[in-house]
Write a structure and sequence with these properties.
The chain has 69 residues and is of the alpha+beta class. It has one domain. The protein is 17% helix and 48% strand. Strands 1, 2, 3 and 4 form a four-stranded antiparallel beta sheet that branches. The longest helix has 7 residues.
C-alpha cells in the first residue's frame, strides 16, 4: 500500500487520512499494488482504496466519474 498526496478533494478516493508515504495525515489517495514476474512474463495489478464516506456518497462518486457496482 502506498499513499499519493493530492491537493484537491474532488478526485476519486481523496480524503484527509494518514499516509505512510508522508508520515502524517494529509489529503491523499491510498493504492494497493501487486507485482508478478516469472520466466513466462510479468504483470502488475493495482487497486485504489475507496474510503467508506466516498462509497456511501453517490452524488460525489458520480461527479468524480467513479462507478459503483
Amino acid at each position: 500500500m502506498t499513499g499519493f498526496r493530492k491537493k484537491c478533494r474532488h478526485l476519486v478516493g481523496v480524503k484527509s487520512q494518514y499516509s505512510g508515504t508522508a508520515g502524517r495525515i494529509e489529503n491523499c489517495r491510498i493504492g494497493v499494488f501487486l507485482g508478478y514476474a516469472s520466466c513466462w512474463g510479468q504483470g502488475l495489478m493495482r487497486a485504489l482504496f475507496l474510503p467508506q464516506d466516498w462509497a456511501e456518497d453517490r452524488k460525489r462518486c458520480c461527479q468524480a466519474g467513479c462507478r459503483r457496482k
